[in-house]
Amino acid sequence: MLDVVRSRLAIPCGFGSTLRTRTSGVEVEASGGSGHSAGTAQLREQFIAVLGHDLRNPLAAISAGARILQRSGALQEPKELRILDMINSTVTRMSDLIDDILDFARGRLGGGITLHRDAKPIEPVLEQVVDELRTASPQRLIQTDFEINEPVDCDRARIGQLASNLIGNALTHGAPDQPVRMGARTEGGTFRLWVANCGEPIPGSRHAETV
User: Fold this and answer.
1) Which of 50, 94, 149, 152 is most buried as measured by Cβ atoms within 10 A of its Cβ?
2) Which range, 46-50, 111-115, 195-199, 203-207, has the best average confidence (pLDDT)?
3) Per the database record, which ranges form the Histidine kinase domain (predicted)?
4) Which domain holds residue 152?
């Protein structure tokens, strides 16, 4: 039997609202560590942050070179154009990974994750995410239902990243012969985002792992 699995996000859409996340409530605390271990951990996290920044320069050079080739029209063969598209896609993916590394480092170093919030339309961002995933998985059906009638004060890039992760998980773990459904709407001052897919139900013993 196929169950419908839903993932939801609800945040206030008014200015000055706060985006909150909740974990499973399981905490692991290490005690008795030495000051040397703490210093080593901090040094490691600083190294990760520096590495993330330094990776941007060669990646920017690769991206610029690919754009020059694309604009020049020097590549005409279908195989060459496919390779160029792959380079552009890989650059985008690597840029996202670097952002994740920097977010991790900022969070561990106490700086927190920076949010760039505004009230610009969120629907184009969601449509772009869905289009990208449809292109990446042309054999899968992704259905959308958007009713966004109020401005949403949020970090649109973060919401797009969240939507991409949820849909990607649904495509990976859901029933391949069933559609993935995504919806977003504003209602009563709240923005709601949900993703649903069909698939085998999660065993009860694993529910705590998926909260």
Assistant:
1) 152
2) 195-199
3) 50-211
4) 3-19+115-202
Number of domains comprising the chain: 2
Strand ranges in the chain using DSSP code E only, listed in sequence order: 3-12, 142-147, 180-187, 190-199
Q: Are residues 184 and 142 in the same domain?
A: yes
- Quick check: pTM over 0.70? no
By residue count, the chain amounts to 211
Domain C-terminal end among 70, 85, 108:
108
Does residue 119 sit in the same domain as residue 198? yes
Q: What is the pLDDT of residues 179-198, one digit of tens each?
A: 999 999 998 889 999 999 99
Q: Is residue 50 part of a domain?
A: yes
Buried b (16+ CB within 10 A) or exposed e, 71-102: eeeeeeeeeeeeebeebbeebeebeeebeebb
Nearest-angstrom CA–CA distance, 54 and 48: 10
